[in-house]
Write a structure and sequence with these properties.
The protein is α/β, with parallel strands linked by helices and about 450 residues long. The protein has a single domain, classed as TIM Barrel (Alpha-Beta Barrel). The longest helix is centred in the middle third of the chain and has 25 residues. The termini are close together. The structure holds beta-D-fucopyranose. This is Beta-glucosidase.
Length: about 450
């Protein structure tokens, strides 16, 4: 395969999230988030792991910035922990918490690395959950207030803002299946949460843009790439259903200011959606400057046997719980996720079709593999190199087809706390020895650094 060049100015980054790496859970005024509560609840996270220490990034951020710089990356996507900068989720800022991010951002800028800040990567202050969490409308207003005060403090240095990371996970896994914090299983609450997350996004964009109109604001979604299991109308209908509750439930309000009519019908047995008030959809459709996509895999979908809706099943696919996702016989990562780079090209083309003028970024893409240090102390991870190579080629195919893809952030800079899987799944370009906190860049870090420096994928 030949060398593939990327456009000038392409962003080559890595991504992380606060709760997955920072640790220092009780330091300097930070209050608990729903993930502290959840991870400390027996049985919720594998091996009882918590983010109390994680990668100790709160105390080692300078070393971690040096890792990014060592790879020659020009961008870094981090998230701010809401309970660190506004403890309890309301009221004044916690200056010590903000200072941590200010130092981090200054370190990045000092090494010519552009900071991309996600405001919400799932760490809702526990006090706001106790007051109703995302199913409560007021949480949207609280989020916009937090976004505005964080932007006011860091916006002289940070020009790229992502409101929410993957609201699908926050709503559907947090309130639907209960696999993620806060661990509820309630379909109506899930639909309310999804809406209030979007409302919070719209209000936050409005508030931040009023403060600094020249910065760029967007959101990151984990859209689901689906293909029908067979070329049959019933399977196409199954794809329509999951595309509705998985993708268009977010895309249509954000990009068109509309709730999809077909999804409203699918959801009728569950909710009348009366929580969507007049004017909300217009707020949610506030113009954005970029859309972030997190891509990992693609699934094949087949028609339900019998009624698609089953109130007894706690599934993320509300209203379509019995639609089937079938096995595909492709190689899988350590997460059991299919390796399917063509799905990434498909997703970029599909999204570009619905918002042709919007710059797109891959804000996460990567793979878990269990590689550990060998006898010489190095960590060789050929599967991850192959995964990145194939997915970057898939990005390049989308660029060649005219998609305005402007950047790519590898998930993740470090092995880290992989939510309900604890520390058992390693997504890092850098190996982390959790006993000593030693960092060892893997072969993939060297490979990715070479790509970033050359602005090109080398010939294979
Ligand atoms: C995404 C999350 C990210 C990480 C990857 C593997 O859903 O945004 O924090 O856990 O999956």
């Amino acid at each position: 395969m030949t060398q593939l060049n990327f456009p000038d100015g392409f962003r080559w980054g890595a991504a992380t999230a606060a709760y997955q790496i920072e640790g220092a859970a009780t330091e300097d005024g930070r209050t608990p988030s729903i993930w502290d509560t959840f991870s400390h609840t027996p049985g919720k996270v594998r091996d009882g792991d918590t983010g109390d220490v994680a990668c100790d990034h709160y105390h080692r951020s300078a070393e971690d910035v040096a890792l990014l710089s060592g790879m020659g990356l020009n961008a870094y996507r981090l998230s701010v922990a809401w309970p660190r900068v506004q403890p309890g989720g309301r009221g004044p800022v916690n200056q010590v918490g903000l200072d941590f991010y200010r130092r981090l951002v200054d370190d990045l800028l000092g090494r010519d690395i552009e900071p991309w800040v996600t405001l919400y990567h799932w760490d809702l202050p526990q006090e706001l959950e106790d007051a109703g969490g995302w199913p409560a409308r007021d949480t949207a207003a609280r989020f916009a207030e937090y976004a505005a005060l964080t932007e006011a403090a860091l916006g002289d240095r940070v020009k790229h803002w992502i409101t929410l990371n993957e609201p699908w996970c926050s709503a559907m896994l947090g309130y639907g299946t209960g696999e993620h914090a806060p661990g509820h299983q309630d379909k109506v609450a899930t639909l309310r949460a999804a809406h209030h997350l979007l409302l919070g996004h719209g209000l936050a964009v409005e508030a931040m843009r009023a403060q600094r109109p020249d910065s760029q604001y967007g959101i990151t979604l984990n859209l689901h790439a689906f293909i029908p299991a067979r070329d049959a109308p019933a399977d196409a209908e199954a794809v329509r259903r999951l595309d509705g509750i998985g993708n268009r439930i977010f895309l249509d309000p954000l990009l068109r200011g509309e709730f999809p009519a077909d999804l409203r019908a699918d959801l009728a047995p569950v909710s009348d959606l009366a929580h969507i008030q007049d004017g909300d959809l217009a707020t949610i459709a506030a113009p954005i400057d970029l859309l972030g996509l997190n891509y990992y895999s693609r699934n094949a979908v087949a028609a339900a046997k019998g009624e698609p809706h089953d109130p007894a099943i706690h599934s993320p696919w509300i209203g379509s719980e019995r639609v089937r996702q079938i096995s595909r016989g492709l190689p899988v990562t350590d997460m059991g996720w299919y390796v399917d780079p063509a799905g990434l090209t498909q997703q970029l083309l599909d999204v570009h079709r619905v918002c042709p003028d919007l710059p797109l970024y891959i804000t996460e893409n990567g793979a878990a593999y269990p590689d550990k240090p060998g006898p010489d102390g190095t960590v060789d991870d050929p599967d991850r190199v192959a995964y990145f190579d194939a997915h970057l080629r898939a990005c390049h195919a989308a660029l060649a087809a005219g998609v305005p893809l402007r950047g790519y952030f590898a998930w993740s800079l470090l092995d880290n706390f992989e939510w309900a899987h604890g520390y058992a799944k390693r997504f890092g370009l850098t190996y982390v020895d959790y006993a000593t906190q030693e960092r060892i860049p893997k072969t993939s870090a060297q490979w990715y650094g070479q790509v970033a420096r050359a602005n090109a994928i080398p010939a294979a």
